[in-house]
Design brief:
Layout lengths: L2 H15 L1 E2 L2 E2 L1 H14 L5 H15 L7 H14 L11 H14 L5 H13 L5
Antiparallel strand pairs: 1-2
Helix pairs in contact: 1-2, 1-4, 2-3, 3-4, 3-5, 5-6
Amino acid sequence: MNNTQKFSSDIERIKKRNRDGESFNLAGALKDIESLFVGQNQQCKGLAISLFDWWKNEFARGPELEDAALEKLSAIFAFVNGEEDDGEALSTDDWKRIKDEVGYEAENLPLDLLSAMMKTVVERGAMN
């Protein structure tokens, strides 16, 4: 099990912990998921916060956390952690936004991490 798979598994546990019968505590779940996401990305904490905030505002809607939204978050997590991901959960527009967020945080990122991230962004076609 790689870090991304463990992250996805932890999200499922968070979802269960925030469900009480028929009701789901979306705000509580999002807070717990944010702590998990940022906590596991301390090497680029500012970028992790920015990416999570973007994801939350753009995709975490409705009374439940949709599977498609969680797949996007897991793909973002894989990207930040330098893990291979098919990237299908993220659109070209998503990759362009990720590129922008990396650019905003570039001066705070270790050079090797920044280089790896930009390589992935280029491979995903976000520079076009």
